[in-house]
């Protein structure tokens, strides 16, 4: 797709057939040499024909910058070198690697490609008519955000406690709410508290 990349490839895929003419070379599924660029939310599901089987990168042939980024991107070829064939130095890899075609076609595979998807107006989806060998394609749309789930466990516990008090309210008497104090004169006794059943209030 690109011989030397210093910019960004995102939301792209290739099912092309690549042939390596020499023993070794800067061959990868999407990029020959990654030079500080980025590959995001993309995949390669084509074929690579090389003199040495598996002697290529699944996505990148050579990386020559620590600033290079490969994120949420996958390949299906049997690369014995991994995502990048020649690492000088190691790029920043986030959620990338080898997947089978069936894994890419699955709902989980499509979800992986849609992870942290840039706002371009397109999302990855499974083709309805079986085109592209059933592999993910792009269509207009956006990722629907998942609403926050509120934990109501404590609230429900307190509601049930209040209901239990309401059921047992006839058990509450002036004596149960105002136990006698063990002291001498009446002046040191605790002030009376009364329960108003109608209002459920102490006064």
Mean pLDDT: 82
Number of helices, where a helix is a run of at least 4 consecutive DSSP H or I residues: 4
Strand line-up across the major sheet: 1-5-9-12
Structural class: alpha/beta
Shape: elongated
Radius of gyration: 33 Å
Describe the main β-sheet briefly. 4 strands, parallel
Could you explain the architecture of this structure?
- The chain is an alpha/beta fold and 203 residues long.
- 15% of the residues lie in helices and 27% in strands.
- It has four helices and 18 strands.
- The protein has helices at residues 101-105, 107-113, 153-167, 174-177; strands at residues 2-5, 8-10, 13-14, 17-19, 31-34, 38-40, 43-44, 47-49, 60-63, 69-71, 74-75, 84-87, 92-94, 97-98, 122-125, 137-140, 195-196, 201-202.
- The strands form six sheets. Strands 1-5-9-12 form a four-stranded parallel beta sheet, with no helix packed on it. A four-stranded parallel beta sheet has the order 2-6-10-13, with no helix packed on it. A four-stranded parallel beta sheet has the order 3-7-11-14, with no helix packed on it.
- A hairpin with a 4-residue loop joins strand 17 (195-196) and strand 18.
- The longest helix has 15 residues, at 153-167.
- It is elongated.
- The model has no long low-confidence stretch (mean pLDDT 82).
């Amino acid at each position: 797709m690109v011989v030397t990349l210093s910019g960004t490839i995102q939301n792209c895929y290739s099912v092309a057939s690549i042939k390596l003419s020499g023993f070794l070379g800067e061959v990868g599924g999407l990029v020959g040499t990654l030079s500080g660029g980025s590959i995001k939310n993309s995949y390669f599901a084509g074929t690579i024909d090389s003199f040495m089987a598996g002697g290529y990168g699944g996505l990148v042939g050579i990386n020559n910058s620590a600033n290079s980024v490969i994120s949420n991107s996958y390949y299906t070829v049997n690369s014995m070198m991994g995502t990048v064939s020649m690492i000088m130095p190691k790029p920043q890899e986030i959620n990338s690697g080898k997947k089978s075609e069936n894994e890419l076609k699955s709902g989980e595979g499509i979800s992986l490609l849609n992870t942290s998807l840039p706002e371009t107006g397109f999302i990855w989806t499974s083709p309805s008519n079986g085109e592209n060998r059933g592999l993910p394609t792009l269509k207009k749309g956006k990722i629907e955000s998942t609403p926050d789930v509120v934990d109501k466990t404590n609230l429900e516990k307190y509601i049930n406690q209040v209901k239990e008090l309401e059921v047992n309210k006839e058990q509450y008497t002036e004596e149960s709410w105002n136990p006698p104090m063990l002291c001498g004169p009446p002046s040191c006794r605790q002030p009376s508290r009364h329960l108003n059943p109608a209002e459920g209030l102490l006064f």
